[in-house]
Every structure is written in structure tokens, then in C-alpha cells.
Prior knowledge:
With 289 residues, the protein is an alpha+beta fold. The chain has helices spanning 16-35, 49-52, 81-89, 134-150, 171-178, 180-183, 190-198, 203-216, 264-269, 282-288; strands spanning 39-40, 46-48, 65-67, 73-76, 99-108, 120-129, 157-162, 224-226, 240-245, 254-260, 275-280. It has a single domain (16-288), classed as Bira Bifunctional Protein, Domain 2 (BirA Bifunctional Protein, domain 2, 2-Layer Sandwich). The protein contains ten helices and eleven strands. The strands form two sheets. An eight-stranded mixed beta sheet has the order 1-5-6-11-10-9-7-8. Strands 2-4-3 form a three-stranded antiparallel beta sheet. Helix 1 packs antiparallel against helix 4 (134-150). The longest helix is centred in the N-terminal third of the chain and has 20 residues, at 16-35. It is globular, with a radius of gyration of 19 Å.
Amino acid sequence: MQKGPVTPKGFGDMMPETASKRRMFINKISTILEKFDFKPLETPTVEFAETLLGKYGEEEKLIYTFEDKGGRKLALRYDLTVPLARFISNNLGLLNPTFARYQIGQVFRGEKPQKGRSREFTQFDCDILGSTEIETDAKVIAAAIEGMRSLGFNKAKLAINDRNNFNGLSIEDIRLIDKMYKIGKDQMPKNLIDFIEKSSPTPRLKEIFKALEENYKLIENKDFFFDATLARGLDYYTSTVFEMKLNGKPEDLSVGGGGRYDNLVGMFSGKEVPAVGFSFGIDRIIELI
């Protein structure tokens, strides 16, 4: 029997059962985010390449770039965060004094396909722009945890760190620490193991943890935990970073992540606009369960 054309590697169809499950997840999380006063927003799938390039560090090599018939250099969006920063830079009047949005959309990364990683996948983001306050970080974190609880993932925990914990280290050492659970602790240089073991929550993290417990009734080591190895690979993060672990273990594959990125909007607007956000990895969650 003759078969039809296949899809490119890393791209694929989604069967009705899986698509229905994804829609259910999206609806449940949307309900939680709207309870936290996030509003929906849409941005285009295609951006000018210069909008995306220079924002992601070593991950930039994974961006799909191409030229249109007019010779313009374009790119498929790598995430929903940089397009959001571009949007806000053109709509600063929405900051009154903050702007909280959520968005669901396809993103594209030219990486090696593997379990939990495709070249096209769905991101579901929530972000608050316009505030450096501790409460802003806590609100995004609480929304992320409650969103996962709404899906029935009661063992999920959010790993949290502060990029300022890595001050004084080279970018190469930071990236190595971030990959410790992937490459194995025994493969790490002794000086970096010592650094990790001596690390503790920064004063800012302690305030965030306090706000999570007092304002949202979340419990350390039950809903969230400090992870000294967490750095996240994207260069635009400036302080708080976090990743969702499905079974609550730091070595687990992440099913979502985010952090504070106070300088990204300023790259476009010239005006500093602090921001913090989280992205649910909907497709990875579905695949891993």
C-alpha cells in the first residue's frame, strides 16, 4: 500500500487523543492564569531575524532563519519571550504600571530531536512586565505551581535559584554547572562541586520564599526548592530562574521554566522594563506522562 509524504525530522502530526488532552491542559491552565489576572496576547510566528538574533547566547545557533522573496532576513520564533519584549517596546503605554499576559503558541528550534524534545512544540507562557518587586516573582511562581496542580501533578515542584549566585564565575563554568545532572556529578571539576555545595539562597530568594509561604500558602521542599545548579541556558536572564520538575527531583527533565529578565525589553526600546515569566512545556508534559 502506497503511503503519503512523511514530515521533516523533528516535526510531526498530533493524533486526536493527544490533541484533545493538550486542549484540556491548556484550558485548565488558562483558567488558573486568568484567576491571577493574566490577559491573553498573540504575536506572529515569523519575526525579522535581527529581532531574535543576539538574545539567546549559544542557543542562537538553533534559530531557524531564512530569506523571503524580497531578500528580507526572517526567522521562526525560538520562544515567546523575545517577541513579547519586542511587542512591549512598541506598546509601553500598556505598562500601567505593570502588564501581565499569557500566550500559547508554536515555537521552533533546530536541535537534535529526542524524547521530550521536538523541533516544533507548543509553549504556554505567563509574564509580568514593569515591576522589580519580590511579589511579582512570587505571583508568577505561584501561578506556575497552581497551574501544574490543576493538571493533577501533585508531585511536581519548582526548582529555584538566583543567577547572582554565579557572580564571579565564567559563562563556561555557569553552563557546566547547569548541565551537572545531565553529564553526572562525577564528571564535574572539584572546584565547581565545592562551589555548588557552599551555595545558599540569596537575600532576594529568601524574600521570595517568604512571600510564597505567607501570601500563597506554598511550602518549601513540597511545592518548591532551592537548586544551586540551576542557571538556565538563555543569556537574557538577570536574577531569579526556575524550572518545573514533574516528580520534584532536581535531576528530572524540566517540563517548564522561566525567570527574571530585566534587560530584554530595553534592548529594543532603550528603556529599562523589568520582567519575569514562566513557560509551561505542554507537549513535553504530555509526552512524558
